[in-house]
Amino acid sequence: MAAGLVTDLAHAGWTIVTSTDAGIDQHVAATVLHLPDAVPLLVTGGGLDPASSPAIAAILPPVLARGAVISMAPPGARPWRARVRARNELLHRVGAASVLVEAGARSRHLRAARGATRSGRLVFAVPGPAAAATAQGCRKLLREGAAHPVTDAQQVLDAIGSAVSGCPRCTAWPTPGLTATPGRSTRSLRPRPRRSTSISSPTSGRRGAN
Hints:
Blueprint: H1 2-11, E1 14-18, H2 24-34, E2 40-44, H3 54-64, E3 68-71, H4 81-91, E4 97-100, H5 109-118, E5 122-125, H6 136-144, E6 148-149, H7 153-165, E7 177-180, E8 189-192, E9 195-200
Parallel strand pairs: 1-2, 1-9, 2-3, 4-5, 4-9, 5-6
Antiparallel strand pairs: 7-8
Helix pairs in contact: 1-2, 4-5
């Protein structure tokens, strides 16, 4: 499901925003990097150095070659709970929409998703199997009305299009994504004519999430 959503949204010209958490988030990042024209945007809760997270050291070079990474902390900083919470809030607000593919009943992303919905952001959740533990958070958001059900990328695109057409102030759409300028020790960010959508699938209470 995650790979299909990523592929279809990337082919439609959308920047894919995700984290470096283990599991589907890393699978999402890997899928983006295997698509030749896709642009990744990663958001981390720790510093951008191996001391903060070994996963960062492996994925940083290919991501910065054609995308960008946003860190919530300076180098060497561990992804403490407050930083991970701030990262989750940003994940659900930086894009035009956010999609939860999987989420446990106590996932930290549920709070962020509810906040995004209250602020008027589009939030989607994949229903998943009724008995699956990894679907309980998504199904909870759907029952609360805090997320829209989604099973394919076209539903996300249609909802974004409807939201924009109903907003007379949204004349600057699409919102530019961010891409890094390679070849500099301090990488600067410049606007790029792309749009962004967030895809994540956290599990409940994972320690060491970045």
